[in-house]
Amino acid sequence: MAMALFAASAMPLAAQDSEDDYDESIRMPIRRLHPEREREKARKKLQQELDAKNKPQQVDDDAWQDNSQPKGKKKDNRRVVGKTTLPPSTADKSLLNELLSKNYDLVEYLPSAPKRLVWLDDPVAESENELLMQLSKTSPQTGVVRYMPRDVTMSNTENAFYAYFSTDGTHVQPLRLRVQYYADDPLQFNDIQFQVNGFDYSYHVTSPRRGKGTGRMIWEQSDQVVQPRDKDLLYALSHASWVRMSLVGADGIKHVKMLTEKQIRDFYSILQLYRLLGGRIE
Description:
282 residues; alpha+beta
């Protein structure tokens, strides 16, 4: 009976027991279920602070200064490399300014348009021996030397178009342009039209010669001194990529012929040799 009463009197006391009733010095601290999470947060926060301190300062393109610098404080023109703070070098500034000053716009390059060939007094690059390799040197009469392309003759029974000149040992005689037409159909040409690299040139025949060949064949020929008005044509014939030549007849009929690469080279060699030996077109 005494034990039952003691137990009954003790139960209310146990129900009213609280940690607040204890002295503050002996209260138990609050225990967290996952203390490692708090350590991880603290570690990340510390790392963020360290990263913020070591982060390079933003550099202004124009002034090389930190724009975030508060007003009233001395400018800090240092840059951070790892954990070492160094001032920007003069070479770095020059390199950055050079890169910023460059024009990075895309440039469209177009091929240059072809131009009409006109007379130029450019220097002769070849020697006399080099030019003579393309030409023939004959003596039609005593004391006279004639220079003309190889594989052509002055026979009226051959079709040909070329330039030539002669020397008498002392003087260079005028440069001449010769046209030979031989066919069974009379043409009676007085003008010649040229297309050189797509540009038009004209040549007028002042005193053509005509005659009869064998059978039905006829010949027509022009042999004239090159005049100053013909200088552009002569230069174009000797520096062309391609040439189309049209002999214009009396009735408007044209005899059209494309010049060969050899004919163009022959014009060049004759003109350069003529100039090299002192010849002039005046």
